[in-house]
Amino acid sequence: MRIDIITVQPALIEGTINHSIVKRAKDKGLAEINLINLRDYALNRYGQVDDYQFGGGAGMVLMCEPIANAIEDLCKLRKYDDIIYTCPDGEVWKQSHANAYSLKENLIILCGHYKGIDERIRELYVTKEISIGDFVLTGGELAAAIISDSIVRLLPGVLGNEESALTDSFQDGLLAPPVYTRPAEFKGLNVPNVLLSGNFKLIDEWRMEQAELRTKERRPDLL
User: Fold this and answer.
1) Could you give the CA distance from residue 81 to residue 79 in angstroms, rounded to a whole number?
2) What are phi and psi of 27, to 5 degrees?
3) Distance (Å, whole) CA 94 – CA 98
4) Cα–Cα distance, 86 to 31 (Å, whole number)
5) How far apart are CA 105 and CA 147, in angstroms?
6) Where are any strands of DSSP class E within 63-105?
7) What is the pLDDT of residues 2-36, one digit of tens each?
8) Which domains does the chain have, with CATH numbers?
9) What is the distance, to the nearest Å, from the Cα of residue 70 to the centroid of all Cα atoms in its chain?
10) CB distance 32 to 3 below 8 Å
């Protein structure tokens, strides 16, 4: 899988893609994540990629030409399954999206910044608009990193135990059940006996019950 991220602040993403699970995927050749600095497509020697809004108002807007040139250069080299724009008014990203996109080959993620991008870019190039929640960030870089991480960890061979991803929260529409490790007793609190029983049928039943209970209590909207 290849993910090309267009951004005016590549440094905000570099740390997240060069550590932990995502780095492992890159090192294994299972994922390629490239940061395209939008300022490489600036209109002048001052690195301009933004301008004032027509109609007035606070906040700068990312201009058409630099973004269009970056996208068109990338599209000359390969076909992309989607061009994703990270923005507050997009569809909220869910585990089902990550599952679906883990089956794709090539993605562009365009990071919003400042007041956003010129609307004509959304009309001409963007095929999917994604939000990570009902709040506003300084830019879409952190959202792009989150989207990339949630996709890449699902690629076959990335996790040490692929079953781990299948039992995560939201994979089956439920929150994950509680988990425990050693010691069996800690400050007067004990691990549930069923987890120590060795009876995997009972353990599976307990985990399902706990997942349903936790979801009902904390995220009833998922049920």
Assistant:
1) 7
2) -65, -30
3) 7
4) 20
5) 15
6) 82-92
7) 999 999 999 999 988 999 999 999 999 999 999 99
8) 2-152 (3.40.1280.10), 167-222 (1.10.1270.20)
9) 21
10) yes
Is the CB of residue 80 less than 8 Å from the CB of residue 74?
yes
* Structure tokens given for 34: 């490239």
Q: Which residue has the tokens 């990312």?
A: 62
Closest C-alpha among 201, 208, 132 to residue 174: 208
Q: Is 133 helix (H, G, I), strand (E, B) or coil?
A: coil
What integer pLDDT is reported at residue 162 of this predicted model? 60
Tokens at 54, concatenated: 């027509």
List the beta bridge partners of residue 128: 84
| Residues in contact with 7: Cβ distance below 8 Å, sequence separation at least 6, in sequence order | 13, 35, 36, 37, 38, 111, 113, 139, 140, 141, 144
Record the pTM: 0.90
Q: Which amino acid is at 189?
A: L
Q: Which residue carries 């550590």 as its tokens?
A: 19
Q: Which residue has the tokens 């991803």?
A: 165
In one-letter notation, the amino acid at residue 4 is D
67 near 38, Cβ under 8 Å?
A: yes
In this predicted model, what pLDDT tens digit does every residue of 154-202 receive, in sequence order? 999 998 666 666 667 678 889 999 999 999 999 999 999 999 999 999 9
Tokens 């809004």 locate to 53
Task: Give the Cβ contact number of residue 180 at 10 Å.
Answer: 13
DSSP label at residue 178: P
Q: Is the dihedral of CA 38, 39, 40, 43 positive or negative?
A: positive
For residue 46, the SS3 value is coil
CA distances (Å), origin 149, targets 39, 102, 160, 196: 24, 10, 16, 33
